[in-house]
């Protein structure tokens, strides 16, 4: 049983990780992540990369929706902006992937700032509808501009590091995972700063926040910009991962996927974005593995596939009904139990 | 009880040990299965086709295995549902290829075919075909390890336009297509071909995919007064709406579609308005008994109920996969992407057992053959409206 954590300074009080146990588990987690590519096969590596990309994008949306209280259904469009920027730069300039990813994030950020303008006047569902416009406009631009390759999209060469092409899931893992971790680190630290706290104040009550001297437009736009930057970088990683970007790569449904991820994971927590993205990406795959164990072989695939989809849907509904604060809250409860163990209270 | 002599026991031991040592070697020597992986859309918007494709591949694989396989090697089909999503398809590919030594693969979409192409090139062990007929894939240089099981979309238009040029020289045609990669695919090249064939393109109308309210587009189409209207990039909607409103407004155009619109059940859903609807079909319909088709007879014996054109596509894909594998093994070569593709391209005047009505030759990445069929609503069937048309 953990009695308490002694904090002797303000720095210790504001630390991101405040206990030795937490740091030790983080170390174990990091070691596992480092070890993972060497033991996993191509399939699990692929999923790990996809989860990491989705975590990055979900974290971006969490900054906007979970922490600032602004609903957006444009996340996929911003990912598209990032992906196209990266693809175009990679094809035409061959610039280093770090530059391309930052440029992708920057372009998406600009898009986010423009789309965020209505956020001062409208919120909630109204803002959600306004951001849907971003999806339509982005799709139109991707499908009709000559440099985006029209409806056929763009096929791009792989990212490369010191001449080594990052063209396998194993190699891409070492690009995607560090970028995602850096983004998570940045987001976690953001909410220890004045800017992050201003976001939270706006979420909790925007009028009160304004009374407290927080300029709403500036901070709402900043939140949109940051969220879109995250989406842009995630889109860039997506482009490097799949190496084909088409207007149909980033449908509106993808934005709903990320919104669902942060709701299921738990809005307003970094862990929520991670768990939600993992849940939304992995559960359908895990269900596949479970169903594969059932007898019947390929003949049953045709019958079981729709059942799997229904179960996935029911799981989401179940979580929302029984744990509206998401998986992060479940995780918090588990931690609390072990803090008190062997006592119940 | 008589005790076994020591020499006999020793001999038995030696034999048993020998057998035990030889067993792994024998197992190893036994030829591996030939594996067909599949990203199959069994749920989602394309499930109507995926279920048929899956059944077609399964049936042909069973037929070959029942007949002893290929040179004693069994075929194993490993499908995964993709819900017609590219990322899920790629996950399925990774899963199947990491758990099996895959030789042949069925992909579910153009997006997947394009996305997985670098991986196919890198892997170099797999020959892939699939549900896409995208013109872009019909390029052996860019897509060396893939092929299309039928004509590409531009070739489908080519078949229809040739039929039109023959039936009504100098006719006016209109293209109605969806605003998607699928829809836009053949339009520009087909416009040029139409002009080359002496036809005039009276209108090109693009609509959102699956749109319902098309009244303004119908007015535009009526003004153009085409003799033939070709729909592309849709499955069903908004084709019946176009035809119904067009007929109400006095249009005399003949209406046409391409492969994914042309399943019998899809066309029959058009109701009375769809009577006479024509389209290009690379395969013979399940119920088409106009000529001898032993393979169709076998399919009918296996499955007495109607099988979709998607089934035929899946069945023929498995047939061509198998033929490529057989030719590769006959030549004593390894089953890798390059050898399988070379074997596939060695196919000349191949008899598909009547699934395609003429012998086929696959010189590049497609099979540029098709036939125009017409809907007979009274008989609730698609009936041949042309002979088999071969391009090139």
What does this structure look like?
The complex is a heterodimer of chains A (345) and B (392). Chain A is mostly helical and 345 residues long. Helices cover 72% and strands 3% of the residues of chain A. In chain A, the strands form 2 sheets. Chain A has a two-stranded antiparallel ribbon with strand order 1-4. In chain A, strand 2 and strand 3 form a beta hairpin. By secondary structure, chain B is α/β, with parallel strands linked by helices. Chain B is built from 13 helices and 11 strands. In chain B, helix 2 crosses helix 12 and helix 5 packs parallel to helix 7 (187-196). The longest helix of chain B is centred in the N-terminal third of the chain and has 24 residues, at 6-29. Chain B is globular and about 65 Å long. Chain B starts with 5 loop residues before the first helix and ends with a strand. The model of chain B is unreliable at 19-29 (pLDDT under 50). The A-B interface holds A 41-47, 50, 143, 150-153, 155, 158, 167-169, 242-244, 246-249, 284-285, 288, 298-299, 301-302, 305-306, 308-309 and B 40, 42-43, 47, 51, 54-55, 58, 77-81, 83, 86-88, 90-91, 94-95, 97-99, 111, 114-115, 117-118, 122, 136, 179-181, 183-185.
The spatial strand order of the largest sheet of chain A comes to 1-4
Number of strands of chain B: 11
Assign an overall shape of chain B. globular
What integer is the average pLDDT of chain A?
92
The outline of chain A comes out as globular
Spell the H/E element sequence of chain B: HEHEHEHEHEHHEHEHEHEHHHEE
Distance between the ends of chain A: 11 Å
Question: In terms of per-residue confidence, which ranges of chain B show pLDDT below 50 for 5 or more consecutive residues?
Answer: 19-29
- Largest interface, counted by CB within 8 Å of the partner chain's CB: A-B, 36 and 37 residues
Strand percentage of chain A, roughly? Answer: under 5%
How many helix segments of chain A? 14
Quaternary status of these chains?
heterodimer
Counting DSSP H or I runs of 4 or more residues, the number of helices of chain B is: 13
Give me the side-by-side strand order of the main sheet of chain B. 6-5-7-8-9-10-11
């Amino acid at each position: 049983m953990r009695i308490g954590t002694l904090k002797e300074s303000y720095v210790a009080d504001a630390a991101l990780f405040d206990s030795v146990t937490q740091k030790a588990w983080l170390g174990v987690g990091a070691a596992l992540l480092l070890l993972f590519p060497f033991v996993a096969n191509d399939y699990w590596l692929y999923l790990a990369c996809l989860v990491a990309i989705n975590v990055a994008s979900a974290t971006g949306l969490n900054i906007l929706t979970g922490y600032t209280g602004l609903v957006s259904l444009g996340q996929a469009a911003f990912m598209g902006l990032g992906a196209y920027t990266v693809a175009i730069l990679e094809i035409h300039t061959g610039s280093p992937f770090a530059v391309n990813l930052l440029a992708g994030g920057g372009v998406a950020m600009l898009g986010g700032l423009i789309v965020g303008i209505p956020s001062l006047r409208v919120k909630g569902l109204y803002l959600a509808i306004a951001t849907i416009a971003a999806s339509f406009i982005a799709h139109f631009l991707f499908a009709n501009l000559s440099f985006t390759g029209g409806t056929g999209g763009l096929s791009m060469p792989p990212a490369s590091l010191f001449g080594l092409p990052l063209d396998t899931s194993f190699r891409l893992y070492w690009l995607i995972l560090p970028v995602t971790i850096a983004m998570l680190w940045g987001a976690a630290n953001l909410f220890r700063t004045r800017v992050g706290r201003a976001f939270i104040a706006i979420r909790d009550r925007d009028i009160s926040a304004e009374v407290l001297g927080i300029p709403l437009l500036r901070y709402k736009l900043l939140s949109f910009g940051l969220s879109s930057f995250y989406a842009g970088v995630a889109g860039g990683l997506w482009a490097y991962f799949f190496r084909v970007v088409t207007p149909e790569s980033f449908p509106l449904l993808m934005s709903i996927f990320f919104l669902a991820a942060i709701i299921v994971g738990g809005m307003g927590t970094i862990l929520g974005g991670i768990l939600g993205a993992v849940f939304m990406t992995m559960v359908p795959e895990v269900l596949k593995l479970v169903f594969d164990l059932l007898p019947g072989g390929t003949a049953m695939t045709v019958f079981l596939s729709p059942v799997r989809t229904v179960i996935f849907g029911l799981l989401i509904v179940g979580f929302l009904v029984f744990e509206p604060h998401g998986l992060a809250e479940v995780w918090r409860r588990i931690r609390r139990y072990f803090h008190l163990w062997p006592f119940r209270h | 009880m008589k005790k076994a002599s020591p020499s006999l026991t020793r001999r038995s031991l030696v034999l048993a040990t020998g057998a035990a040592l030889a067993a792994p070697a024998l197992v190893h020597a036994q030829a591996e299965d030939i594996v067909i992986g599949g990203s199959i859309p069994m749920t989602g918007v394309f499930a109507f086709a995926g279920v048929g494709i899956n059944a077609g591949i399964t049936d042909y694989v069973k037929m070959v295995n029942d007949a002893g396989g290929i040179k004693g090697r069994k075929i194993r089909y490993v499908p995964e549902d993709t819900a017609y999503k590219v990322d899920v398809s790629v996950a399925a590919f990774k899963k199947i290829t990491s758990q099996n030594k895959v030789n042949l693969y069925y992909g579910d979409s153009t997006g997947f075919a394009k996305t997985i192409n670098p991986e196919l090139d890198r892997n170099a062990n797999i020959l892939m075909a699939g549900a896409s007929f995208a013109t872009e894939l019909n390029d052996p240089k860019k897509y060396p390890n893939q092929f299309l099981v039928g004509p590409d979309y531009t070739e489908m238009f080519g078949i229809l336009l040739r039929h039109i040029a023959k039936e009504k020289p100098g006719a006016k045609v209109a293209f109605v297509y969806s605003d998607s990669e699928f829809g836009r695919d053949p339009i520009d090249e087909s416009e040029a071909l139409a002009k080359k064939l002496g036809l005039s393109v009276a209108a090109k109308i693009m609509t959102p995919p699956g749109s319902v309210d098309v009244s303004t587009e119908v007015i535009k189409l009526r003004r153009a007064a085409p003799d033939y209207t070709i729909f592309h990039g849709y499955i069903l909607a908004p084709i019946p709406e176009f035809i119904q409103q067009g007929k109400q407004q006095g249009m005399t155009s003949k209406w046409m579609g391409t492969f994914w619109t042309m399943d019998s059940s899809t066309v029959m859903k058009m109701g009375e308005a769809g009577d006479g609807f024509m389209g290009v079909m690379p395969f013979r319909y399940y119920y088409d008994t106009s000529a001898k088709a032993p393979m169709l007879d076998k399919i009918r014996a296996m499955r007495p109920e109607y099988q979709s054109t998607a089934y035929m596509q899946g069945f023929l894909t498995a047939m061509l996969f198998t033929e490529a594998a057989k030719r590769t093994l006959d030549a004593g070569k390894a089953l890798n992407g390059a050898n399988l593709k070379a074997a596939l391209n060695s196919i000349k005047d191949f008899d598909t057992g009547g699934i395609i009505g003429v012998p086929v030759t696959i010189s590049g990445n497609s099979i540029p053959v098709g036939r125009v069929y017409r809907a007979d609503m009274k008989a609730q069937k698609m009936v041949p409206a042309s002979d088999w048309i071969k391009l090139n």
